[in-house]
Amino acid sequence: MIVFTSTPERGLIVLEPKGRLDTAAAPKLEAAVNDALASGNSMIIDLGETTYISSMALRALLFAAKNAAAKGNAFAVSAPTANIANVLRMAGFTAILHVHDNLPAAFAAVRQEARSHPPD
After folding, report:
1. Are 110 and 76 in contact, with CB atoms under 8 Å apart?
2. Which pTM value belongs to this model?
C-alpha cells in the first residue's frame, strides 16, 4: 500500500510517497503529480519513506520533472533511501533529475531555482 502526503508551503508542494512505488502504485503517483502540477506550484517528491521504486514510477518522476520545467516550475527529489538512490543512479536519473540527500537541501535548491526564474 502507498500513502501520499501533500504539503503545500508558499508555492511549493511536497509529495511524500510512503511504501512501495510498484507498478500498481505508479498510476497513483502520476495522478498525485498531475494534481500538484495543476496547482502551478513547484514540487519536491520526498522519497525518504519509499521502500521500492519500479520502472513505471521512475517514468512518473521523469514526467513530473519535464512537466514542471515546461510550466516554469522547479522540481526536485529528496532523501532517497540507499537502495532507491542506487536505482536512480543506475537508471541515469541522477543526471536528469535534481536529487538531494535530504528535504532541507531540496527546499533550498527549489527556492533558489524559483528565485532565479520568477513567474511571468
Report:
1. yes
2. 0.86
